[in-house]
Amino acid sequence: MFRPLPAYIGLRYAGAQRSGQDSAGLVSFISGLSTIGLILGVALMIVVMSVMNGFDRELRERILGIMPHATVYNASPDIDWTAIRGEVAAMPGVTAAAEVWQVNGLAKNGLDVSPLLVQGINPETIINVSTIQEFLQPGSFAALTSDAAEPGIILGKGIADKLDIAVGEQLSVIVPQSGDSETGGRAAAQLAGFKVVDIFHSGTALDHSLALVDWQQAKALSGGAGGAGVQMRVENMLKSFVVFQQLLRQLPVEGFYGNDWTGTHGNLYQAIQMSRNLVGLLVFLIIAIAAFNVVSTLVMVVIDKHGDIAILRTMGASTREILLTFVSQGALVGLVGVLLGGLLGVIGSLVVTDLVSGLESLFGIQFLKSDVYPVDYLPSQLEWGDVALVMGAGFLLSLIATLYPALQASRVQPAAALRQDY
Question: How does it sit in the membrane (predicted)?
């Protein structure tokens, strides 16, 4: 005889297919639905958590890979920025620094106009704090600092598409100037012509706002007043604000100010974390509903098996064995559900990015746009810890759901059940 006996009987009940009896057929149908619901719930939660992990990764590695963790500025025209960059890089908690000159302006190509943030960079130091070079062609930085009559500019793909401009074409950049404080008059806007030497596509919102030029060109656009600063990367991005505040207190020159990534992208990070928690909770509830569908399945099995339970009791089966019989049946449903759901979820997490991209190409639409969402594609990062957590939670809920009908089965009175059936 197969041991343990409760598990053997429970597995027999779970796999029974007696199509000749209406009640048994209905029980098998409902049991199948419960299993399918659990499979889909587990798979969906694994995919959703992987997508949320993907958004978190893209913010940390792609968006904050291109943009600095923190930047300090000073409006004084007498700052030696090379020296300040060296001092910032030597500060505790800072891993790299690069000087930058930022100017807000307008890009104009024919009748098309687009706002943009012009960053004047030093190609030798910008690569220490930004991964922007990963999205550029070799030699693009060199083209910015060439001695050609017309300076070069690197545009984000979103700006280039809006202006309908390509590499090698001419672009005008207009920078409004503030009024003259001495005369109270209005200063003329700075206008400069550039040649587009490259167009980067990072797949982030930076494609719609960022343009790169040589440091001296940005300084000329700003009129030499304001906009200069030092960008930096820190060892622990989550502690960037603390490092940034300590740095401001330690710099030898007065008048420094700035911000860190929590001020520019902190809301985005918090939104991703909150969405991850809320979506995870909602999908967890879906799993809970699917798991507790096992209750209705086992209740019907208990009603259908009253006679069998009574016979087992008269043959000497204990209350504990009857209880374990139906727990075994529910555990099998839960185990099949979480295993198949976990497998389906892992596969879905690995292919969801390519699947969505394929659907976009097939139907000619774009589900995510980087001017609205952090990135213009659906990222996914599978974490095996999440898979184990979801599968474990789904199986545990399935076991909990079996307790009530199993207890009801263990309380069946043999005499009453046999008198009712026979």
Answer: Multi-pass membrane protein
